[in-house]
Amino acid sequence: MSMAGLVSSASASAPRCDHTQAWAALHGHHQAHGRSLDLREAFARDPQRFARFWLQAPELHADLSKNHWDVATQRFLLDLARECQLEARRDALLAGAPVNHTEGRAVLHTALRAPRGLGPFSAEVHAVLDEMLAFAEKVRAQAGQPYTDIVNIGIGGSDLGPAMAVTALEPFAHPGLRSHFVSNVDGHDLTATLRHLKPSSTLFIIASKTFTTQETMANAMAARAWFDAGMPAGADRSRHFVGVTTNLKAAADFGILTTFGFWDWVGGRYSLWSAIGLPIAVAIGAEGFRALLAGAHAMDQHFAQTPLEANLPVQLGLLDVWYRNFHGYSSRSVAPYHQGLKRLPAYLQQLEMESNGKSVDLQGEALPFGTSPVVWGEPGTNGQHAYFQMLHQGTDVVPVEFIAVKRPLHGLADQHQKLLANCLAQSQALMLGKTAEQAAGEHAPTASPQIDRAQLARHRSFPGNRPSTTLVMEALTPRSLGALIALYEHRVFVSGALWGINSYDQWGVELGKALCAELLPRFAMAAQQSPGALEGLDTSTAGLLQHLSA
Amino acid sequence: MSMAGLVSSASASAPRCDHTQAWAALHGHHQAHGRSLDLREAFARDPQRFARFWLQAPELHADLSKNHWDVATQRFLLDLARECQLEARRDALLAGAPVNHTEGRAVLHTALRAPRGLGPFSAEVHAVLDEMLAFAEKVRAQAGQPYTDIVNIGIGGSDLGPAMAVTALEPFAHPGLRSHFVSNVDGHDLTATLRHLKPSSTLFIIASKTFTTQETMANAMAARAWFDAGMPAGADRSRHFVGVTTNLKAAADFGILTTFGFWDWVGGRYSLWSAIGLPIAVAIGAEGFRALLAGAHAMDQHFAQTPLEANLPVQLGLLDVWYRNFHGYSSRSVAPYHQGLKRLPAYLQQLEMESNGKSVDLQGEALPFGTSPVVWGEPGTNGQHAYFQMLHQGTDVVPVEFIAVKRPLHGLADQHQKLLANCLAQSQALMLGKTAEQAAGEHAPTASPQIDRAQLARHRSFPGNRPSTTLVMEALTPRSLGALIALYEHRVFVSGALWGINSYDQWGVELGKALCAELLPRFAMAAQQSPGALEGLDTSTAGLLQHLSA
Question: What CA–CA distances, in Å, run from A313 to A146, A253, A299, A398, B542?
Fold first, then answer.
């Protein structure tokens, strides 16, 4: 059977989650047990609970035991996965079937990290990879002379992945090269970045598949003007601008001679493994970049080969469906206890919410259940001093995902122990809570002496029984970061597949683009008080436009 | 009547929102009209809709017309505010009544920005302010010699406010001084910051009210060790470390001679106006800091004096209650179309979720309705290329708050017009949506030629009718930023007051701290395989601890 046949057969015959027997069984289970599960009792009842829900995957362990589920829930969820033919659909994805069916495209970010000779498109992938890494090494060899600063200009997938990874891997970065990321069309972004740079020592990477992305091209042109203005006439611009694009002609017209390409089976939010990863490669070098790919590939193999019950991305994806569609939790908070992962939540927002923020199934039928939750968070311990109040004592339950890293890459061992103790204490506190009776027995130094003690105790009590997952990494390295990101990618596939949606298109970004193109000329018209400037607009958009262009 | 009498009478006699007639009326109104309101029809029906919902406040305009409400909703919400005695409670807050009743404290961040001679504690406030600003100017006069880098060490309110404001006001900052913020106990935070600095040219600001905050003290001690190791013996440490604290003794023991204090009526998340704002003052100077205060004070006056129907923080707070408790929206996305405001969402997470993430009322009774939503977001246009897909086509409705700034402080006028056009296009797209019929008539360049056209059109359709608010500022300046922050502060008071909660305590952070202190010594014990290390712990916490300390 052809690839196209494979996927149509897999998706046509696979039932949507809500049309399965397991879905009905899960509803009954939730009514009878799931809703009222008390984590404290569950741990007291089952001494094996931690061991049962402690999973191992490449570079990672996961503690899933502090979640609102039990062995029966897990069994029903596995039934759901099987009824939805998750394994066949996973295999179709990995084999290069056109699972992005609205655009007729395969989805093969996994091919970007397969070892040489393995999997689809290996020759093309490794040719570009070799070339891109050789270039990265060449730039690194010129650190200080002429290059001191690398500025990546890209947006969305051409920004969030590379920026997140470079931030995370800062201890592995070349000490003589500073990395910068400019994405926003807001001129403040580029202006603030260039203020401290010199054209003669700056290398710009212009990352845009089509070389027409509005924000990126505006910034690229402004960067070129800045370069031209700051350099002597006749300076070699091509040494300071390179492109990651498939539009060689547009890049050449811009003045770019060095370009690295990729393919239509690489989605923007899955592209950091391709030439879009050039800023990562420049920062951490060819060897580091290959380790990042290897970590991701190891997770790909785990995903492809591990039985569903021990398959970490599958288990996380099932839990996501359980929480979203049965418990009704509408958001998930990510709390990386590592400052280097501070941009991970923003990266995951794109990965998950752009992939699964859909409301029709593969056939375009409206879905009667919720899909992508809101994903949000800040690094721990910072969040503890901010929004964790709401996680502990607010009215809504928000599952929290803690990420702990065992070994630091700095010498402040004492601080690292405090960091880990905080991480564990938070998941413990969310689960254990504190009754008003317990609170009443404690001294609260800042309490008002005038407040009634019983009332104060109620203010100081915590409901507890709030769920969390803890992911544990040995150290934050290129390899483990690769595995972590691939884990999230596959998890998003799993929930998307069960929901029966296309996780790989993004039609929802089109309307705003079209309306922007329509509004843009109106600003100049409104400034000149041209009569047609506001024609046909709703009064709100018209009023704002008039106010902003006056 | 005394202050204490004032507040007890205001809060004792004021009914909680759900015990009012207006609450019942709002329920009926929501069932009958509010739930089914279609924004497109509402604009078509009422040519005055924009003008009706366009509010002016100091330094800001707000377009509230693209929200799921109408004049009747607004009237019922005003009834609710009056039944809950919002005005009396606001007056009690501003007069210094101990509205933080569990800690017996007044809440007087407004006093920090009142002009000299006006309002409570004016003499103390202005004495510290004058001293702090004189010091900031002294540091600025030493830019380059010896100071090049300012490192603020603080967490929560001692970090988020100053970091957000310094980022936002970067165009106003002293060009010879770089600002850094270290908050996380994770040693990566401090290590990555210090890597490029020299002790001889660095000034550390240690910000901790009690001078005992775990994270801050750990970082301060590591910074001191780094300083001592990098400087000749006998170097004057006191020229490189200053404190913002009320614990003079602990600061002196640490080796700090210069300290600036504040008061127990300044909550951490409301403290950037106090000496906690020192890094802001060093960056933008005394005049800039006074402008920030003046902008906030102007908003305070608006809040204190404007009738409720034209009072912007009141209207926003009422809308928050309407969305949370009647429409059931569980999160709100903040989209500042200004790169300088990139840390505003994180700042607002603390402000709103720590203030109103509570589930008991003033008397400690459990609340039967939802309080603080999740507040989250990234700057536009970046978000458009990430999670906006979910806002447009996801299954949940998330109200979006756009912030547009009319005049840029850079010369890239063309980019600014694109930025504003994008901002308006997004709120327009959220509202207008696109039917499958409309989509069917359009060409979609990337669509698969094999997909059924009618099915494709359903993938490319948007429900529309999604609500948003647009705040408009003339320019992002110290003065307008002050007004913007004060607007959010008062808005949080309004929803908190209606919900009948204490927005000014944060008991929910205590349990994690206590459990952390209990877990910390266990790490060393577990490393030595001491038998008591895991005693009494749930198996999950025990298992994680064992794994992480092995």
Answer: 44, 44, 9, 20, 24
Q: Decide which of B428 and A6 is more confident.
A: B428
Alpha carbon distance B308, A131 (integer Å): 65
First to last CA, chain A: 62
Check whether A211 has a pLDDT greater than 80.
yes
Mean pLDDT, chain A, whole residue set: 96
> SS in 3 state form for A492-545?
HHHHHHHHCCCCCCCHHHHHHHHHHHHHHHHHHHHHCCCHHHHCCCCHHHHHHH
**Six-digit token pair at B142?**
């030493």
Q: How far apart are CA A39 and CA A49, in angstroms?
A: 10
* Closest-CA distance of chain B to residue A354, Å: 5
CB-neighbour burial class of residue A438 (10 A; exposed 0-12, middle 13-18, buried 19+): middle
Task: Give the C-alpha separation, B282 to B177, whole Å.
Answer: 8
Residue with structure tokens 């908003």? B299
Task: Report pTM.
Answer: 0.97
User: For residue A1, what pLDDT is reported?
Assistant: 42
Domain B39-71+307-438+454-499 belongs in CATH node 3.90.79.10: no
Q: Where are the domains of chain B?
A: 39-71+307-438+454-499, 120-290, 509-549
DSSP symbol at A326 = I
Beta strands in B320-433 (DSSP E): 331-337, 374-376, 400-407
Is B104 in contact with A450 (Cβ distance < 8 A)?
A: yes
Is the confidence at residue A4, as pLDDT, over 50? no
Cis peptide bond upstream of B521, omega within 30: no
Q: Is the pLDDT of residue B8 over 60?
A: no
Dihedrals phi, psi of A151, to nearest 5 degrees: -115, 115
- Are B314 and B494 a contacting pair, CB within 8 Å? yes
Q: Does residue A94 contact residue A304 with C-beta atoms inside 8 Å?
A: yes
- Other Cβ atoms less than 10 A from the Cβ of B530: the count is 13
Q: What is the CATH number of domain A120-290?
A: 3.40.50.10490
Is B385 a residue of the active site? yes
Annotated catalytic residue B510: no
Residue B446: list chain A partners with CB under 8 A.
103
> How do residues A406-441 score in pLDDT, each as one tens digit?
999 999 999 999 999 999 999 999 999 999 999 999
Q: What is the ipTM of this complex?
A: 0.97
* Percent of residues, chain B, with pLDDT higher than 70: 98
Q: pLDDT confidence of B10, banded at 50, 70, 90?
A: low
**Residue B279 in this model has a pLDDT that exceeds 60:** yes
Cis peptide bond N-terminal to A146, omega within 30: yes
Task: Give the bridge partners for B374, in sequence order.
Answer: B331
On average, the pLDDT of chain B sits at 96
Torsion of CA B420, B421, B427, B428, to 10 degrees: 150
Q: Which chain B residues have a beta carbon less than 8 Å from that of A367?
A: 395
**Confidence grade of residue B531 (pLDDT, cut at 50, 70, 90):** confident
The torsion angles phi and psi of A169, rounded to 5 degrees, stand at: -105, 20
Q: To 10 degrees, what angle do helices A86-95 and A71-83 make?
A: 60
* Residue of A374, A403, A406, A430 to mutate, testing the B interface (most B Cβ within 10 Å of its Cβ): A374
Is a pLDDT exceeding 70 seen at residue B7? no
Calpha distance B231→B238 (Å, rounded): 13
> With an 8 Å Cβ cutoff, are B511 and A429 in contact?
yes
User: What is the distance between the alpha carbons of residues B433 and B41, in angstroms, rounded to a whole number?
Assistant: 13
Reduced to 3 states (helix: H, G, I; strand: E, B; else coil), residue B61 is strand
Arithmetic mean of pLDDT, B208-212: 94
- Please answer whether residues A174 and A286 qualify as being in contact, where contact means their C-beta atoms are separated by less than 8 angstroms: no
Mean pLDDT, rounded, for B537-545: 97
pLDDT at B239 (0 to 100): 96
